[in-house]
Amino acid sequence: MARSSAATVEEYLRELPEERAEALRAVRRVILDHLPPGYVETMNWGMICYEVPLARCPDTYNKQPLMFAGLASQKHHMGLYLMCVYSHQGSRAEFEEKFRASGKKLDMGKSCVRFRKLEDLPLEVVGETIAATSVEEYIQLYRDSRRK
User: Fold this and answer.
1) Is 47 helix (H, G, I), strand (E, B) or coil?
2) Who's near 13: CB < 8 A, 6+ residues apart?
3) How confident is the model at residue 148 (pLDDT cuts 50, 70, 90)?
4) Taking 70 as the threshold, does the pLDDT of residue 2 lie above it?
């Protein structure tokens, strides 16, 4: 499944094969346990998203909520989208260092950490990364990036 039309997170998870649904539920729990106040969980872009609501940051370039992180089941892998790492070079370097120090192999594009099974992700590192950026800091990073 590359993109879903599910309206709710639970509906999205029910569409998945059980092994993938279990893995995404576990990663979702880590995200929710570490998500700073102000972000909201939604279904957007065909995946589970963690966003800054438009009421908090209405001036986005595409008039959509500002995505902080996302979670999806793709055709050949599952993806954890960390826009919080993509948007800040220092955060990216720290994330990559901690990920590799966990002993797990990092398979990452610009923002997408690809994994085939739950054991491929160091969940502690994921939680620390999610917890590290407040809504206010993330909005400021976004605004600073738009000024360049």
Assistant:
1) strand
2) 21, 24, 25
3) low
4) no
Half-sphere exposure of 78 toward its Cβ, with a 13 Å CA cutoff?
A: 25
Q: Can you list the alpha helix ranges (DSSP code H) found in 1-147?
A: 9-14, 18-34, 83-86, 89-101, 123-131, 135-147
Beta bridge partners of 47: 44
The C-alpha atoms of residue 88 and residue 82 are separated, in whole angstroms, by 10
pTM: 0.92
pLDDT at 53 > cutoff 70: yes
User: Tokens 């346990």 — which residue?
Assistant: 33
Angstrom distances, CA of residue 135 to CA of 8, 17, 26, 126: 23, 33, 23, 17
In angstroms, rounded to a whole number, what is the distance separating the alpha carbons of residues 134 and 6? 28
**CA 63 centroid distance within chain:** 19
CA distance 74 to 3: 8
3-state secondary structure of 79: strand
The C-alpha atoms of residue 28 and residue 18 are separated, in whole angstroms, by: 15
